Amino acid sequence: MLIAVLATGLLPAQIVQDFSTSTPGTDHYVDAGSPFTQHILVNNPLPQTAPNATTAGNVPGYQVTYTPSRNRGTGGGLTDGELFGVVDVTVPAAADNNMGSLTIDFVANPPPSGNNRVYVLEDPDGLATLRFNPVMVDVNTVFSMAYIIANTSYENSDGSDDRIAIYLEDVLSGARTDLFSATNAAIPRNEMWATLTADLSASAGRTLQLVVEFDTNAGTEEMAIDNIRFSSGTLQADWPVCSAPTVPTVAQSPASVCPGVPFRITIAGALNNATEWVIYADAAATQEVGRTSSDQFDVFTGAVAGTSYFIRGEGTCTNLMTLAPLAITTNASGDCLPDATPGTSFEEPLGAATDYFDTGDPLTTHELMNNQGQPSVSHRFAAQELGFTTVFIPNRIGSSGDAGLTDGDALGVSNSASFNFPDGNQGFVFEDTDGEVLLFFTPVDLTGQTGVTVSFDYFVNATSYETSETGVDFLVAAIVQNGQATELFLDARGQATSGLTGLETGVWTTYTYTITGNYNAPIQFALAASFDASTERVIIDKVSFSAGTVVCEDASAPVVSCPAPIMLDGNDNCTAVATYTATATDDCSDNVSITYSQASGTAFPAGETPVVVTATDESGKSATCTFTVTVNDITPPVLTCPAITVQTDTLTDCNFIATDNTLDVTATDNCGSVVLANSLDNGATLQGVAIGPTVSAITWTATDGSGLVSTCTQQVSVIVPPSCFPTSVNNQEAAVFRSVRATPNPFTAGTTISFGLPFTAPVAVEVFDVSGKVLQSGFANTTAHNEYAWYWDANAAGSRAPAGVYFVRLRAEGRVYTQRVVLLK
C-alpha cells in the first residue's frame, strides 16, 4: 500500500480541459465586435454561450479570435446567432434554449469525457481561431484530444474554402506540428468521435500551444471538441499576452472649420495588438461614429459647433483603454462666407492624394459617394460656399477602356502638392474617368441680377486627348436649370496631340463666362469630363460667381446631439431631478425646435429611464437621439428584529413551531418591496419553522430591488421541559469541549465552569432551570491556550436562584455541550 502511494505521488500532474468546469449557455452567440475586423470574441452575459475561459489550476483556458474571411457584404461576422462555446449536449431544444438544435447526434455519440459538456464551433461566416494556454512539455508528454465533425456539405463559397485545421504551435519559433487538416469535400463525413494523439518527447523543453481553426459559413457545418489532455508538462497561466493600444493624440484638420463642413480627425498613437481606432460621439462610448485602422478618419457629416468626439483603440485586446477627447473648433458664421459671393476653392472638402474607388455599379449611371480615406467627390454647401455632387455615366466601355471607377482612377478633391493650386492647397481633379463624370454645384439664386459672371481656374495636363473606340475626350461647362442645360458655354474636345480645343495646356488659366439669361429661378454651374487614360488630367480650382445667393435645398434632417448619460443618487422618495440640454444644427435653418420625451427638471424614478430628444427644422424634417437618466437607490431597507420568548406546547416537545407569522420581523424600503430571508431555513417567515432549545438568535436579511441589504439579529428564548436537556456529559461533543468541569459542584453561592477547545472562538453560555427558562447568559473568556472559564453567581442581585438542579449550556461554532450543576442553600 505504501509503495502504491509513493508511486502515485511521483506521477506528474496531467493538464486536462474536458469543459466540465465551464458554464454552458442556453442561446447561440451574438458577436458584439465589428464583423469586418479581426478581434477577440467577448463573453456576453447569459444566456449566450461564453466563447472564452480563464485558466484554473491545471485546466487550460482558451480564447477565440474571429477573422473575416468571407465576402458576405453586410452579412458577414457572428451577427446572426452562430454558436461558439460550451454546450450541455443532454439539454433538449426548447423555447428558451436552442442548444439542442445541433446537427451532431450526441445521443448516438456521447462526449468521450463523460460529463456531457463539449466545445462547439458552428457557422462563423469567417475564420474562428481557438487557442488554448501554452504548455511547456517534457520528455514524457503525450498529447490527446477528441473531436467530432457534422456529417454535412463542405465547399468553397463566398470566396473562401471551408476548412478545419488542428495543430500545436511553438510559441517562440512559430513552428507547427499538424494534427489534422482538411478542406471542402476532404473534410470527414463519418460523424463519429475521433482521437488525435501526439508523442511530444522530441519537443521537450519547448512551449506549445493548441490551436483549432474553423472556417465555414453554414449552420449545419459544425465541429465539437472534448477531452484535451497533456499527460505532463507545465501550464503557462499568464497567457494570453496582450499589448494594449496607447491613448492616442488626436486633432482636427483643418484646425478650424465652418459648421456643417466635412473635416478630418487625425490620430497619433500605437494600436499594438488592437486592430482599429474607434470614434464615439459620447464619453460613455455608446454612440459609435466610425472605425479606422489608419491614422485618419473623415467626418463627412460635417462639423457641429460645440461637439466633441472620443477615440480609443479596440479589437483583439479586450481591455478598453482611456478615451481621448477631441473638441471640434468651428469658425464664426461670418468667417465662412468666401468673398461674400457663391464660390469654392475646394479647401473645406477633404483632400487626398490617393485614387478614388467607386463602390457603385460601374455599368449604371449613379451618384458617387465619399469613401473613407479617399478624395471627396461630394460636399455640402455652407453659407455662401458652394457644395457639389458628382455623378458617373458609363459611356466609355470598350476593349481599350475600363468600365467604371473601379481601377483606381483619380477623381475628387486632391491635396497633392505637385499640382501647385493657384488658390489654397486643394482642387478638384478629373483623370482617367473611363466614362463621363458630371460635377453639379449648389443652386444659386440670380433673381434681379444681370451681367453675372461665373469663373474657374483650370490646368490641362500636357498630353494627348483624342477620339478612341470608347468615345471622345472632353471637358464641358454649362449653366443648368431644372436638370436641363440652358447655356452651354464651353465644349472642349480632344484632338490628338493638340490637347482640348479652346483651352490652354500646361498652365493654370482662368476661364470666365458672363451669364446671358434672365433667371427668376435658381440655376446651377456644372462641369462634365470624360477621359480614358491615366495621363489625361484636368484640374479645377477657385469656382466663383460674381453675384447671387446660394439656395438652401433642405434635403436632410437636423443633426441632433444628446447630452451624455446622466447618473444620480435617489432621495428618500426614491427619485432624483435631472436637468439637461441637447443641441441641434440644420443645413438650412437656425430655427430648430427641440423637444424631450421627459422635460428637463423632471423627477425620475429609480432605475434607468431613456429620454428621447427630437429636433425639428422649419421644413418639418426631424431627427432623434436617445440618452439615459439613471437614478441609483442608495438607501438600504429598514429592518426591525424584536427579541422573542416562546414556550413549547407540551412537557415533551423540544421544538417550538410557530403557527402564524406573528414572530416575523418587519422590513420596509423607500423604493418598493423587499425580500426577507432568515438564517434557520432561508425563508421569509418563521411560520412552520422548528425553533429548538439550541437556537438563541436568528439572523434576518432584507434585500431590496437594487440589491441593497440590511441585516439584524433577533434574540430568541425557547422555554423547553427538562427532558430536552442532557443530565450527564456522556456522548456530548467530548472531542470538542475538553475537560468540562464545574468547580465547586454542588455549590452554595456560585460555580466556575472551565473547559478547553481545539480552536479559538466566542463561546456563548446560558443557564437554564428545569423548566427550560433562561436565568442568565454571557460569553466565556479565554485564559490561555484555548482554555476558557465562566463564573455563575447564583446570588447575583436581581437574579437570585433557589436551591435546585440547573443546566449550563456551552455553544461554540455550532457545537453544544451541557453541564448539570446543583445549587445548595
- How many structural domains can be distinguished in the coordinates? 6
Question: What value does the average pLDDT take?
Answer: 86
Q: From the 3D coordinates, which CATH architecture of the largest domain would you assign?
A: Sandwich
Structural class: mainly beta
Rg to the nearest angstrom?
A: 41 Å
Query: Poorly predicted ranges (pLDDT <50, ≥5 residues)?
Result: 1-11, 727-731
CATH class of the largest domain: Mainly Beta
Instruction: Name the beta content range.
Output: 35-45%
Largest sheet: 8 strands, antiparallel
What's the N-to-C terminus distance? 64 Å
Shape: elongated
Please count the beta strands (DSSP E, at least 2 residues each).
62
- CATH topology label of the largest domain: Jelly Rolls
Work out the helicity level: under 10%
Tally of alpha and pi helices:
1
Multimer state = single chain
Domain HYR: 553-633, 634-720
Protein name: HYR domain-containing protein
Keywords: Repeat
Pfam families: HYR (PF02494)
Protein architecture, described:
The protein is mostly beta strands and 825 residues long. The protein has 6 domains: 12-235, Sandwich (Jelly Rolls), CATH 2.60.120; 249-335, Immunoglobulin-like (Sandwich); 337-550, Jelly Rolls; 559-630, Immunoglobulins (Immunoglobulin-like); 638-719, Immunoglobulin-like (Sandwich), CATH 2.60.40; 725-823, Macroglobulin (MG2) domain (Immunoglobulin-like), CATH 2.60.40.1930. Helices cover 1% and strands 41% of the residues. The protein has 1 helix and 62 strands. Strands 2, 3, 6, 7, 11, 12, 14 and 16 form an 8-stranded antiparallel β-sheet that branches. Strands 56-57-60-59-58-61-62 form a 7-stranded antiparallel β-sheet, with no helix packed on it. Strands 1, 4, 5, 8, 13 and 15 form a 6-stranded antiparallel β-sheet that branches. Mean pLDDT is 86; it is low at 1-11 and 727-731.
